[in-house]
Amino acid sequence: MNDDRFSYAPTPVVTRPKRVAVSGGAGFLGSHLCGRLIKAGHDVTCIDNFHTGRHANVAHLMGSDRFHLVAQDINEPLGDELGRFDQIYNLACPASPVHYQYDRVKTALTCAMGTWNLLKRAATDGARFFQASTSEIYGDPEIHPQAETYRGNVNTVGPRSCYDEGKRFAETLVTDFGHQHGLTTRIVRIFNTYGPRMHPDDGRVVSNFIVQALAGRDITIYGSGEQTRSFCFVDDLIEGFIRLMETDEEIDGPVNIGNPNEITVNELAQQVIALSGSRSRLVYHPLPIDDPRRRKPDISRALTHLRWSPRVQLQEGLERTIAYFNAELHGNSVAQRG
Ligand code: NAD
Ligand code: UDP
Q: Which atom of ligand 1 is nearest to the CA of 57?
């Protein structure tokens, strides 16, 4: 994946700054997106209800007079006092199974009502709208790797349904609302992403394994550990977001963004142990209901339309993430660094 034809330079500082809203901007991905947009010279309004987001994630941006933090739930309409936006990124939604299953009705409604509220605002402002969707819309896939044309295999009434079906509905709403109101809309299907500022308690596999390894605790493998995922480093993902939002090319439908490097959960555990120098043991727990067996993105669309592919190899990304958690756990927080 280090093909030079698809390598990218950092986003240049823009000549015409835009007013950009990022819902969920105090979360893991949102805080990286806000940082990139501020660096590029835009005026950024971060809208977050701090359900899973943290002030520490955006503390390093608070000194900028182009960064505005608004504590608000997107299930409530945005007030006019926020001003007009050129672009709206909708990332607001808990993303880890532990968090999105905490209040399943709220998760489903955030995908529906929250997205609708932001779309209405985009229509009023004439803003371009970006929806963070997910590989979970493919459910437990019968097609491998998953291209955007695959329609998925999702349980409508399982513990993951509030999120999977919520995000599927949001894709429909964004698409139909965009057509009916003449809005430019973008939908990204994000595959498992990791990196600094993941919440240490959010239960996702990369953060769990690193925190367990650094603390010398048992590494918890669910099921046999032979299920696969494909992990994308956060910097690569955010580059893909910005390219998708900024392109004026006609993009019809969702675009997968993720790293096609597929590994088993067992292999991930071994790699985390090796890179962190840990002596943790592996322990096996039951597999959660409806846990997908395999997942790997087909990124042909992103290559063709955005000339995007991931650059950060898993080893480098894990080393950077381990360094982050090491500092967090030992009281030398790096959450605020760019
Ligand atoms: P996160 O939990 O760190 O961030 C979500 C943010 O949204 C948090 O700051 C939270 O407080 C905020 N939020 C939640 N509900 C809200 C509401 N009703 N109103 C306002 N703010 C609200 O998760 P993340 O990993 O940064 O994910 C961001 C987006 O990307 C989510 O939409 C998620 O579904 C999507 N996504 C992430 C991944 C991944 O691997 N990280 C994979 C697929 C999709
Ligand atoms: N997983 C695991 N141990 C953990 C956390 C997760 O083995 O401590 C597994 C989980 O069952 C799944 C994979 O790792 O098969 C990825 O889980 P995660 O919650 O990170 O993402 P998702 O299931 O949403 O892809």
A: 9
